[in-house]
Design goal:
The complex is a heterotetramer of chains A (257), B (106), C (246) and D (606).
Chain A (H helix, E strand, L loop, with lengths): L16 H30 L12 H26 L3 H30 L1 E6 L4 E9 L3 E9 L17 E6 L3 E6 L6 H28 L5 H4 L1 H31 L1
Antiparallel strand pairs in A: 1-2, 1-5, 2-3, 3-4
Helix pairs in contact in A: 1-4, 1-6, 2-3, 2-6, 3-4, 4-6
Chain B lengths: L2 H34 L5 H23 L7 H24 L11
Helix pairs in contact in B: 1-2
Chain D lengths: L11 H5 L5 H7 L4 H31 L9 H8 L10 H36 L8 H20 L18 H4 L4 H29 L12 H33 L24 H35 L6 H14 L15 H29 L8 H18 L1 H5 L1 H7 L3 H31 L5 H27 L15 H7 L3 E2 L4 H34 L58
Helix pairs in contact in D: 3-5, 3-6, 3-19, 5-8, 5-9, 5-10, 5-16, 6-8, 8-9, 9-10, 9-11, 10-12, 10-13, 10-16, 11-12, 13-16, 13-17, 16-17, 17-19
Classes of the chains: A alpha+beta (257), B mainly alpha (106), C alpha+beta (246), D mainly alpha (606).
The structure holds heme-A (2 copies), dinuclear copper ion and copper (II) ion.
Chain lengths: 257, 106, 246, 606
């Protein structure tokens, strides 16, 4: 006996196996991200008044990435539709764009990460706080390009306190009380930001690998078993749309609100 | 089915996908724009942002993922998931709002 | 019933109620268990294949089991609505007046307890976590005059008998749990949180404070803390003596 | 197709999977659900044994704190180093054995045995499928499971040893312990969760998609239903723990503060973290899995019980529909009761009322399931073979465990019982003489299908009676200890809280654990040793019967109705000689007017 319904649909459920499988998997993904979103909510409402960062991320970059993902989503579904009408070339084109979008997304995301890791908050012994990008660090001093603030709160709500000023500040090591970059340990916002977007980026990379495979070597299946291949594109597409969908929420809650 | 018929069908679908695509672009633009409008109450910004995100998510799930016209079985699976998702979110957050009086939580 | 269950000494007002609920539930459990067991034993004996070589396709035809199930649900609902919920409300939501009570702050650490009393002025000094250090367990603001006369003790909590106690439970490192078995109180001591509890001791004596939450290698030996319940006079004397040494 | 009359083509497990594929493809990288089931079975039995051994050492320490562990003390010191200096268990070692006992028993023992092993072997056969829906994912899930298990095992031998913060791994303790055990634990858990998720997807898809023609939902054997609900619990409850695990991992290795509040002062001064997190958040996410998880432990067991009972009473299970609906109700409700593990974290009346109410409601479907099983006995023609004995013991044992959940379920009585041995006794009555017994029953029951031979009946009975007696001797005293206030996770068995210790210190303390309560430790220790010895007949029987057990004379030695028995024995690759078709419900025993006392699901109507 062979396993039934690997390609054609089972009459009473109307599904082929992989489609049932992917939706179940997505259900579990909903719970995975759901737990992280709950954590986000609790950390946010639990943060002391005025100490939840606003406007820390680069909105233009985030917007571009949103557009990139939306574009990749439509090309995915177009690629599948192309296969449905037997237009393999059109599939190749659309799916190629999807792959490209995935790479652009990851590229932009890495740049954003890099930017955060080189962004420092320096607490001086005299109580002042310097904040900006690291230019140079030696044994005796650090140089950043940024600004001084009196109160830590000013660093938080950047909607209210716009971050003007890009002076070059050099601080002697012995004046420094604490040096902290905007990595995950900076505060709970950065922690949840890196965790959520990191996990999301892993999904993007995983998806890109699958899409790349199906675009390249995997597409040979088209000639042997077109229906199965079309199904595979549908399945990977469903996953990809889900990844897009998560981003649709991540973008406003992390970048905008 | 003839090739021509196929193409017609395809065109029909593509038009719909493109429509959704434009709607998503528009949604993104609105979210970004709205976030720069300083409402008196920041909660309003948040609410609006989430409503738009929800709409976009609905479009992606409904049309790109074809949920609008999916099978009963998948609705059933997702109904459970939504129930538990809401349970997780709501009950956890609720628990943080019901402590004995005078409890300090931070 | 007390004997069978082996409940330990109880020395607080509400403790008797806790025990009462435990007893009610155990009555229900025993009734169910014994009933089912009798049926079970009979069924196994009666329907052994040697006594009943041919099985009956249908088996039980009546709906007695439905009534039992409804009855179980009913008893549970009664216990819930009329005992468990009101009693819980009483212990967590309805607090005695602070002025009528002994107020204590409790901070757990690895591996022991610190207690803090408001001192002669009846007010605690301001606290902030940023002041916490190896010496300053409560994070008392050194500039607040109200804190100057506060009384701090380690591993010894003293309260007068028959007067409500309000204790604010917290921890400075990991999660512990403040449990005094005879008082029937348990409250996790969670860092970053301060949760109030209250109880009224009714018996004088020295009671052990247990740490009921795994808190590291010293968890099993976190047993040096004691609650001493004494008469009003003795307590006043002790307070005065403490205030003098602070 | 009536396989019952077939002569047995092969004997023994070895020939069964004979193919040209070679050793690796046949035994290690097999995609056949039956091989994977057996792989899961043997691995998880091994882990059960390891988990039990950990506990034996701990029971010694509880009864004789500070004394060198007899027999293996030297070995412990040799492999584990300072934590077992002079063969004495240190508190670190006690804590890590405790945490790993819980973790191993649950995530590496019972879940893979009850869900993955039996599920893999039996479910496709029962629904008339040739294999699982995704055989390669199935294989992957086993391999990820083994990897997770290895990470857990390796962690015993790293400096400082395995995780020490209990199976619940509450933050901040879990992240504040300086050794790497917790990191290993978290990585191991992420792997195990991933494996379970793959398995769950596979099971659900299989049950939805691959049911044989005629196998409608209400004709599924109850075991399949139980596995179906279980799979949903795993699918939807595990991801939040995975998320929480990732966050705790971030806390541990990236220095974040998801679960660390502001003002944490470990060992005196303020910890060098940003703070702002919440320890309670971990507990919520943990118990969001933790509670459904306990039904993951019990539902497959109930499924096995239903199969064995109907087979050995020779009559249909009473109230099949209520069973199915109750299982669904349990699955549904188990997601909204979790905070009953957190009553004493500081909970207001509203939330407490909600969770108490759901907890009480969820006990009702359990009562219904048990009642149906009981009533099924009435009018039966009961055969007392080994699987049936284990199953019959399951019923009152689960009864004790379940009923003692009730006083825990009321927040008010939980004040006294929380974190005492009463809780330990409560859940062990369910998982040990409950679930483990049901699993034993399953092994004795399906062994002939897997191997073509029966296990030895006499030694099976010996195994049963000894296990039954010693289990009760181990766990019954714990109720008394818990009621009198003995706390869990005490490396010295509560010696510091005993009346004797207090008297010695001259403290004049009222209360304290009496000498009688403390003396129970010794009895429990020896009962546990007895329990261990009682497993020897089983282990020997299991392996001995592979080659020497009495051969079964038909493909359906138990004269059962369900589809797994209507295949050749052992089933070949692809399972059924020809696609089966189902005509009736799963438990058509003693149908009036039928010539035999069982009517298999696939026999056509006349
Ligand atoms: C398989 C495992 C399993 C199962 C099924 C259950 C079932 C139940 N559990 Fe249990 N529980 C655990 C495993 C389990 N539990 C574990 C592991 C812990 C501890 C975790 C930790 O802290 O480490 C725990 C802890 C735990 C607590 C927290 C205690 C504390 O920490 O203070 C609570 C509180 O409500 C609770 C309640 C219940 C209830 C109400 C049920 C109900 O569902 C029970 C319903 C069943 C019945 C009511 C029985 C019906 C039977 C009959 C009526 C027939 C009688 C039969 C005969 C006489 C033959 N459990
Ligand atoms: C499924 C779960 C499960 C199971 C089966 C068990 C089984 C047992 N447990 Fe455990 N236990 C837990 C889950 C489980 N436990 C958990 C979650 C905790 C809490 C941990 C924590 O505090 O964090 C705990 C804690 C715990 C404690 C409390 C420790 C403490 O608080 O300090 C004790 C004390 O006695 C104990 C004892 C036992 C005993 C004697 C058994 C016996 O019943 C064991 C019986 C075992 C067998 C009968 C093995 C059968 C296997 C074979 C025979 C193998 C055959 C092998 C081959 C063929 C290869 N357990
Ligand atoms: Cu402190 Cu346990
Ligand atoms: Cu529970």
């Amino acid at each position: 006996m062979d396993i039934p319904y690997t390609v054609d649909t089972r009459p009473d459920t109307g599904l082929y196996n992989a489609k049932a499988g992917i939706w179940l998997f997505l259900a579990s993904e909903v719970m995975l991200f759901g737990a992280l979103f709950s954590a986000y909510i609790l950390l946010r409402v639990g943060a002391p008044e005025g100490l939840w960062p606003l406007g820390w991320l680069n909105v233009p970059l985030g917007t571009i990435n949103t557009l990139v993902l939306i574009t990749s989503s439509i090309t995915t579904v177009m690629a599948w539709a192309a296969l449905k009408v037997n237009q393999f070339d059109r599939f190749k084109l659309f799916h190629g764009i999807t792959l490209l979008c995935a790479l652009i997304f990851v590229g932009i995301k890495s740049f954003e990460y890099y930017d955060k890791f080189t962004h420092y908050e320096v607490t001086l012994k005299d109580g002042r706080i310097a904040d900006g990008h690291l230019k140079e660090a030696t044994d005796t001093h650090v140089t950043i390009s940024g600004r001084f603030v009196e109160e830590r709160e000013e660093l938080y709500d950047l909607h209210k306190h716009k971050a003007h000023g890009h002076e070059t500040i050099t601080i002697a090591r012995e004046d420094i009380e604490k040096l902290s970059n905007y990595g995950p340990r900076h505060n709970t916002y950065m922690a949840i930001y890196f965790t959520l977007t990191g996990l999301h980026a892993l999904h993007v990379i995983g998806g890109a690998i699958v899409i790349g495979y199906l675009w390249g070597p995997g597409s040979r299946l088209w000639r042997k078993d077109p229906e199965r291949f079309t199904n595979r594109i549908e399945i990977s597409g469903l996953f990809w749309h889900f990844v897009d969908l998560v981003w649709i929420f991540l973008f406003p809650i992390l970048y905008l609100l | 089915m003839s090739e021509k018929h196929h193409d017609e069908h395809f065109g029909h679908h593509v038009r719909r996908y493109l429509l959704v695509f434009y709607a998503l672009l528009l949604g993104t633009a609105i979210t970004v724009a709205v976030s720069y409008v300083p409402f008196t109450n920041h909660a309003l910004n948040i609410g609006l942002g989430l409503v738009i995100a929800g709409t976009k998510a609905f479009l992606v799930a409904g049309y790109f993922m074809h949920l609008i016209s999916e099978r009963k079985m998948i609705y059933a699976i997702l109904a459970f998931t939504v129930f538990f998702f809401v349970g997780l979110m709501f009950l956890t957050v609720w628990s943080f709002y019901d402590f004995p009086p005078l409890t300090i939580t931070r | 019933m007390d004997k069978i269950l082996g409940l330990p000494v109880v020395a607080s007002e509400h403790g008797h109620h806790v025990d009462l609920l435990i007893k009610y539930v155990h009555w229900l459990m025993i009734a169910l268990f014994v009933g089912w067991l009798a049926y079970f034993a009979y069924a196994l004996f009666r329907f052994h294949r040697s006594r009943n070589p041919k099985a009956d396709y249908v088996g039980v035809r009546n709906h007695a089991s439905n009534y039992i199930e409804v009855a179980v649900a009913g008893v549970e609902a009664l216990l819930l609505c009329f005992v468990a919920v009101p009693a819980w409300r009483h212990v967590v939501d309805v607090f005695p007046e602070e002025s009528e009570s002994t107020v204590v702050q409790v901070v757990a650490y690895q591996f022991g307890w610190y207690f803090r009393y408001p001192g002669p002025d009846g007010e605690f000094g301001r606290q902030d976590m940023k002041f916490v250090s190896a010496q300053n367990h409560f994070g008392v603001d050194p500039d607040d005059p109200r804190g100057k006369d506060d009384i701090q003790t380690q591993n010894e909590m003293r309260v007068p008998v028959n007067r409500p106690v309000i204790a604010y439970i917290s921890s400075k490192d990991v999660i512990h749990s403040f449990k005094i078995i005879a008082m029937r109180v348990t409250q996790d001591a969670i860092p970053g949180m301060r949760v109030p509890i209250h109880f009224t001791p009714t018996m004088e004596g020295r009671f052990q404070i247990n740490c009921a939450q795994l808190c590291g290698i010293g968890h099993s030996s976190m047993a040096q803390g004691f609650l001493v319940v004494e008469s009003e006079e003795e307590h006043a004397k002790w307070l005065a003596a403490q205030a003098a040494t602070q | 197709m009536q396989a019952t009359t077939h002569a047995i083509p092969h004997t023994g497990v070895h020939e069964a999977h004979h193919s040209d594929a070679g050793f690796w493809r046949t035994y290690i990288f097999s995609t056949d659900h039956k091989v994977i089931g057996i792989q899961y079975g043997l691995t998880s039995l091994t882990f059960l044994l390891i988990g039990f051994c950990l506990m034996l050492v701990m029971r010694w320490q509880i009864a004789h704190p500070g004394e060198p562990v007899p027999v293996i003390g030297g070995l412990l010191e040799a492999v584990l180093g300072d934590v077992a200096a002079k063969g004495v268990m240190s508190n670190e070692l006690y804590n890590s054995f405790g945490a790993m006992h819980g973790t191993i028993m649950i995530f590496l023992g019972v879940v893979p045995l009850a869900f993955a092993a039996f599920g893999n072997y039996v479910v496709p056969l029962m629904i008339g499928a040739p294999d699982m829906a995704f055989p390669r994912i199935n294989m992957a899930s086993y391999h990820v499971f083994v990897l997770g298990g290895l990470v857990m095992l390796v962690s015993f031998f790293i400096p400082g040893g395995a995780a020490q913060a209990g199976w619940t791994s509450y933050s901040p303790l879990a992240t504040s312990i300086a050794t790497d055990g917790q990191t290993f634990w978290l990585i191991g858990m992420v792997l195990l969760i991933t494996s379970s998720l793959l398995g769950a997807v596979n099971f659900i898809a299989t049950i939805i998609q691959l049911r044989a023609p005629g196998m409608t939902w209400m004709r599924l054997p109850f075991f399949v239903w139980a596995q179906f609900v279980t799979a949903f619990l795993l699918l939807l409850a595990f991801p939040p723990l995975e998320a929480a695990g990732i966050m705790q991992l971030m806390d541990k290795v990236a220095g974040t503060s998801f679960f660390l509040p502001t003002g944490l002062a470990i060992g005196g001064d303020l910890a060098n973290v940003s703070g702002g997190g919440s320890p309670l958040l971990w507990q919520h996410l943990f118990w969001f899995l933790g509670h459904p998880e306990v039904y993951v432990l019990i539902l497959p067991a109930m499924g096995i019980v239903a199969e064995v009972i109907s087979n050995n009473t020779r009559k249909p299970i009473w109230g099949y529909k209520s069973l199915v609906y109750s299982a669904l109700a349990i699955g549904f409700l188990s997601f909204i009761v979790w905070a009953h593990h957190m009553y004493l974290t500081g909970m207001g009346t509203k939330v407490a009322t909600f969770f108490q109410t759901t907890t009480m409601i969820i006990s009702i479907p359990s009562v219904i399931i048990l009642t149906c099983m009981f009533i099924s006995l009435w009018g039966g023609s009961i055969r007392f073979n080994t699987p049936m004995l284990f199953v019959l013991a399951f019923l009152p044992m689960f009864g004790i465990g379940g009923l003692t959940g009730l006083p825990l379920g009321f927040s008010y009585s939980d004040i006294h019982l929380h974190d005492t041995y009463y809780v330990i006794a409560h859940f062990h009555y369910i998982v040990a003489p409950g679930t483990i017994f049901a699993l034993f029953a399953g092994i004795y029951y399906w062994f002939p299908k897997m191997t073509g031979r029966k296990m030895n009946e006499f030694w099976g009975r010996v195994h049963f009676w000894l296990s039954f007696i010693f289990m009760n001797l181990v766990f019954q005293p714990m109720f008394a200890q818990g009621m009198s206030g003995m706390l869990r996770r005490m490396a010295d068995g509560g010696a510091m809280y005993s009346a004797t210790a207090n008297a010695r210190a001259g403290a004049g303390v009222i209360g304290g654990l009496t000498d009688y309560i403390m003396s129970l430790h010794t009895y429990i220790l020896w009962a546990a040793v007895g329990l261990a010895l009682a497993q020897i007949p089983f282990i020997v029987n299991l392996f001995w019967s592979l080659r020497n057990g009495p051969k079964v004379k038909s493909d359906n030695p138990w004269r059962s109705t369900t589809l797994e028995w209507q295949t050749p024995t052992p089933p070949p690759h692809g399972n059924f000689a020809e696609p089966p078709r189902v005509y009736r419900g799963p438990y058509e025993y003693s149908v009036p007017g039928h010539p035999t006392d069982y009517t298999p699901q696939n026999v056509p109507e006349k």
